[in-house]
Amino acid sequence: MATKISTFRAFSNRNYCLYFGGQSVSQIGTWMQRTGVSWVIYTMTHSAFMLGITLFATQFPSFLLSLYGGIISDRYDRYKIMLVTQAAAMIQAVLLAVLMLTNQYAVWSILTLSVILGVINAFDMPARQPLVHEIIRNESDLPNALALNSSMTNLARVIGPAMSGIILEKLGAGICFSLNALSFVAVITSLLLMKLPPAAQHPAQKKIVAELKDGFVYIRHTPIIGMTLLMLSCVSLLVLPYNTLLPVFAKIVFKGDATTFGYINSFIGLGALGGAFFLASLKPGVDLKIVLLINTFILGFSLMFFSHISYFPLAMLFATTCGFGMMAQTTVGNTIVQIHAAPNMRGRVMSFFALAFFGMLPLGSLAVGGLSQKIGAPNMLLCQGAIAIIIAIIFLNYLRKDKLNKRKMEKINDANDIITRNI
Q1: Which of 70, 200, 259, 273 is the most exposed place for a label (fewest CB within 10 A)?
Q2: 124 has pLDDT over 80
């Protein structure tokens, strides 16, 4: 019974329960649309490079605008910002559904709407993540709430792609995207039902460039945040774009269809969901940097095994462990950054997190899509797994040096205490 209370303790907060419920429904719809868009583009073009272009179109606006989104998040009410971004995302989903249902879609129109969604996300993410910090008043419950957020996202990643694959085959992409548009009703309703105290607003006191510079200087002088963001940037650029190639594996390697593609995503989501519950069950005080390191090793080895296994059931085993390893990159990285960020810098720091994580993904997707055309999708995933292991080894050396420096400082402080007492 104690474990249950520890694992789900953030649910004692009414506002968090509303937030969790609304986001759960919306995230399922989001994953349905994400899976559907990739499959539609691949069936239209049969090009891995176009898959990279599609992810680039969705995520590159975050690279360009997330820092500005972070400033807006620090200046204004994050709750109201999120209401606006969720309503805008709903409109985007409706437009995409209408295009598909009326058979008026083309590659360029899907990519255009993907860019619009990317712009919306650039302002949504820097507001949505710190909003959880404002909902959860007890600082010790924040890691648990963020881990439960990850479990919610990854549960959606299990359900959404599986539903999307079936709906794409049976009912078509128009119905798939319509259900995503409908899912936004849940998240908007949950936000309207929340009762939050008036948010403290911080009107512009400096120019945008100056505020961005302040955020960068703050991160540079906070090593734990800076090193975490650097590691996430490398993983996001060089490793996580592996999902760009999943339609290729579904259709070419496993000789399947949209349902196969949905199953691959669902098994990855299942592993990530298990990892999220594992994180939610961790006791306070656990060194999250070690967890991040171990999961990066797991991600690397899982990708290497998955890349050259053509037997579908065995490949799904490694897809699951891959999801477990991947999950820590967002959840643990997010938790480390939010815990160590000062309240007045949290929006800007989270915008740098969005830049490091979501901003690097589109660039990596372009590179992965292009290189896989030359060396093949299996070899590309093998290389990405190896790169993940190299990044983990480098981060391990950083942790060792960090521990040595802490021990030196402790010895110096102990020596100073002895001298002070003798005086």
Answers
A1: 200
A2: yes
Domain that holds residue 39: 2-194+204-417
300 within a domain of the structure (yes/no): yes
Is 199 contained in some domain? no
Phi, psi (degrees; rounded to nearest 5) at 409: -65, -40
Query: Please, are residues 314 and 289 in contact by the beta-carbon 8 Å criterion?
Result: no
Q: What is the mean pLDDT of residues 27-39?
A: 88
pLDDT reported for residue 411: 53
Report the alpha-carbon distance of residue 198 to residue 195 in Å, rounded.
Answer: 9
- Tokens 């993907």 map to which residue? 114
Give 384-403 as a 3 state SS string: HHHHHHHHHHHHHHHHHHHH
Query: Which pairs with CB-CB distance under 8 Å and at least 24 residues apart come from 201-204?
Result: 201/75, 201/76, 201/77, 202/74, 202/75, 202/344, 203/75, 204/75
Distance, C-alpha 94 to centroid of its chain: 24
SS3 content of the chain, % helix, strand, coil (to 5): 85, 0, 15
Q: 218: how many CB neighbours lie within 10 A of its CB?
A: 18
Amino acid identity at 146: L
Say if residues 215 and 345 touch (Cβ distance below 8 Å).
yes
- Does residue 423 fall inside a structural domain? no
Residues, the chain: 423
**CATH number, position 123:** 1.20.1250.20
The total domain count for the chain is 1
pLDDT tens figures, 310-351: 899 999 999 999 988 887 777 788 778 877 777 777 767 777
Candidates 385, 390, 364; CA nearest to 293 is 390
Residue 258 lies in a domain: yes
